[in-house]
Amino acid sequence: MKQEEIDLFEKAQSQLESLHSEIGALSKKSQNDALNKFKLKFVNQILVEANKILGKNYKPFPDFEVFNEDEIPSNSDATMVISQYLGCMEKLRTDNIISKQEYNGNKYLVRWYWTKTGKQTFPPIKIKEN
Amino acid sequence: MNIIRPRLNDFFSLPFRQEDVDFIIPYIDEDVPFYIDPFLLWKSPSQQDNSLHLNLINNFNFLGHQFLKGNKDCIDILINCSECNEIGLGTSKFKAGKRIGQKTSNEILSLYKDIPQITKSGFLHFEEIQLFIDNIAEDRVSDITANFIKSFLIDYTIDQCEKLNIPIQQVDIDYFDNKTNKFITDNVFLPINPNTKRSILFVPKRWIRQTTFISYENYCKEYYSPTILKVGQKPERVKVLNFNRNNYDLVQTYIKIRELQQTDCKNDPLFKQIPVLSAKRRLDTIIKLPTGKTDNADRIYEDTLCPLLASLLYPHLDFAQEQSRTESGVSIRDLVFYNNCSEEFLNDIYTTYQCKQIVFELKNVKELNNDHVDQVNRYLKDTFGRFAIIFTRNEPPKKVTKNLIDLWSGQRKCILVLTDEDLKLMCQVFESKNRTPIDVIKKRFVEFNRLLPS
Domain range for residue B426? Predict the structure, then answer.
């Protein structure tokens, strides 16, 4: 991935995480309550960006693009879809990063970098450190 | 076209909502049960309203002073002022009320002779006459007010008609002229009632209440009974009116109290939504109700759902009326709403299905069948166009859904079916205000369109 793509990716991921946190909290309070139009508009904007980044191969659902306002999606619907997108974003990231072992004069550290650009990133979420 | 409870804008196919306009939309065949309260003009922060009130009081007091001078024309003028059919307010079912008689007019104007304080200073709130004269209530006060400020109402009506493209015609109208202090006839352009051919005047919503702020009932309840009567005694109308004439000081005190309470005086909304808690209670009642007719369950379903739907769909759909009809020995209850095209999909329904009024049929049945659909289908004509909504308990079976699609394919009729689940969602969004209940109907409409063959 190029530097511009990584920047867009990180922005979209951060927005998705915030949305997941906010709407998840709403969903815990009232899961069947309808998501209001204001939030829905921004959720859809971010999903459009995420769809561009993920492409056909990484999209969580092939036939889902954005929420249809007329279908009155609920808080739990939005939380579920956003969590799926977050999972797929993480998969895309994991497939485009490599680890490097570096000696800092004291001990060896494993650091993760985006391939091609060498920009540092955090380790894959699913790999636990020993 | 047979429009149910037609309003002026329905007749001219102008689908605006009551909420969107500044005035009360008049009915063609009946009056609106509200009244102009001059107290609202008096307390209004608007200088224009205050000026109109001053004008009204000056005109009324002018009649009183003319009476004191022995000029009997004022009695006839007051009789003319006591009825104003053009404004369409009151409880008359036939849009034409009756004026007061000579005797009542004489009694009213005699107050200027009999009560020294009124002889000296006149009235500031002429609606006080309700406290002295029998058979004078908010309807007369409203009509007298309208007649004295009719010149303003004429200009206001013309202005609103131009804004909203309501057709107007040249017509003669009588109104009280401030310069000559007489009723004169003028030729103006005003909207006309298509049935009675009489001119129509619009009244601003900000001036109307269900009863006047100063009224006989309020006076008795809040002032006369607690201060004058003994515990357990009930006020007798004639005695109260006589007492008031002989004890004007006490009436003045009451008026002063009302003036101090002026912040409590607000115009009454034409439609009041039920509170959220009440909506939730009604929903609970419906959800727990058995299907069918056992223990009058169908009646309870209809009685509970009617006000609930009217509130949920306000202001997107103005409620027209509920009605009952009998078909093949079965009593069917339905609700009729005006289709104001306030949403895009309502506009689609208006243009595609020629639906000027949306009918909601209520069916407290466990399972909808094709007979129910046929009942609704037969009812679809005239103002309902080719669109209806059935409210029932459960999702229809596949054969009924197929029938509904076939109905569209063959006759281009659209019948939506909404269930308890949709009603729950409507109540939920009514409470949370995240979406509007009308969006639930839109959701069903979109889902139905997706099922249709291309």
Answer: 276-451
